[in-house]
Each structure stands twice: as structure tokens, then as C-alpha cells.
Design a protein that fits this description.
mainly alpha, 4 helices, globular
């Protein structure tokens, strides 16, 4: 059992607040936009398959982040899309745009 599968520790909330979720998502979005800008600037000098793949990966994460903002807005953020159980707060702290708990993520791959 990994630390992401363990129940919440004493004193730690089981879920992130809406404010905390939005903050984490904003941070992730800003980091990915910075990455994309850096890749675009580098891409002007060198265009290759690796840079294109990196840009695609960053864009996919940005899409996931935007979907997570929508889940915050509709109240489904933090609920696993696979099993409908709460996604542990520790997992959301690490990967705030995730749609799945660890167990369901393993099955979806």
C-alpha cells in the first residue's frame, strides 16, 4: 500500500477546500503556461520531435487543469471518476487536476 492509499492522518482534512483546490490548480496552470512559453521560445530556434512532444504533453495537462476547474465549479472536484469515492487530499495536493484515486488510476492505464 502506498502513502496515497492510506487514510488521512489525524488533523488533516479528508478533502481540500474549494479555495485550496483553486489555488493549487492556478499554480499548476501557471507552471504549465510558463513551460509552454519556454518551449515556444526554444522552438523558434530548434524545432524537433522532442519539443513538439513536450508541447503536446503540456497542452494535455492544461486541458486536465481546465477540466478540474470545471469540476470545482460543479462540485464534483475531489470525487473519483472511477469509483465515486473521495480522492485523498494528499493525492490532490500532489496532482491537483487528477480525476482518479490511485486504485482507479492504476486500472485506467
Amino acid at each position: 500500500m502506498s502513502s496515497l492509499d492510506t487514510p488521512p492522518t489525524e488533523g488533516r482534512p479528508e478533502r481540500l477546500t474549494t479555495h485550496e483546490a483553486r489555488q493549487r490548480l492556478e499554480h499548476e496552470r501557471n507552471a504549465r503556461l510558463t513551460q509552454l512559453r519556454a518551449l515556444d521560445e526554444a522552438g523558434q530556434e530548434v524545432t524537433d520531435q522532442v519539443t513538439a512532444a513536450q508541447k503536446d504533453a503540456v497542452r494535455r495537462v492544461l486541458t486536465e487543469i481546465e477540466a478540474a476547474f470545471a469540476r470545482v465549479a460543479d462540485g464534483s472536484y475531489g470525487t473519483c471518476a472511477g469509483c465515486s469515492r473521495p480522492v485523498p487530499a494528499e493525492r490532490l495536493e500532489i496532482l491537483p487536476y487528477t480525476r482518479f484515486c490511485v486504485a482507479c488510476q492504476r486500472h485506467s492505464v
